[in-house]
Amino acid sequence: MKLREVQRENKRGGFPESERKQGKQFQEATENLETETEAEVKR
Length: 43
Prior knowledge:
By secondary structure, the chain is mainly α.
């Protein structure tokens, strides 16, 4: 499932709590990865 779909479902409250947490962790991990990638590019 794409991140945008996860966020949309979270806003609608379409996921049980455990899946909502996983979606949040996935979102944070993706943001961290993007930040790390940007840092790599700047080097």
